[in-house]
What does this fold into?
Amino acid sequence: MRKEDFPEFNSAWADALGVYGVRQPESVILAVFAALAPYPLADVQRAIAAHISDPQNGKYAPKPADVIAWMLVSVQDGRPGVEEAWAMCPLSERDSAWMTEEIAAAAAAASSLIERGDLIAGRMTFVEVYRREIQAARIGQRPVRWWRSHGWDPRTRETPMNQGLAQKYLAQAGLALPNLAPATAEQAELGETAIAWRDADESARRQMVAELVAEAEEG
It folds into this structure.
């Protein structure tokens, strides 16, 4: 918000507080305005209205943190909400996934926990970092940037689990999901070989190498 937005903000804030029979001194209202200043006036007004009509949180007069929380979950800028972002997060390097800069940052922060199989701690870390990243992006009014992260298993590139969610949020951002070519037979075979090698013990790996050498000699 800009300085010239204060009268409109003050009116919306006073009306909201009036619902609860609350009046605040000008010094407090100025502090609230300063706390919410990084956000557009229209978003602040919508968040204030959302708070007072919420069956749970709307029982109490709004605070700046309540308004910010509403804006973080309600802004439609092509970024997924926290739970959907976690659902889109690749859980291993084999998985392909549609990503945003914020999902990627949160996934990187949680990757060591996820790799150890501690999904509860991994999710908590992901959520904390993702919320911080999208807040910074929205305050900075940075447009969302989507890209596709390719895992090492080519077969996951045919029908990525998060494609539907990506389509939804790309549409919000006015973007289209590129058409994806299915994995070729050669890519699928390479994926099978990679998985077999990863899961094989030393003896099985030696056998695989011997078979590959024999095939090369025959060719």
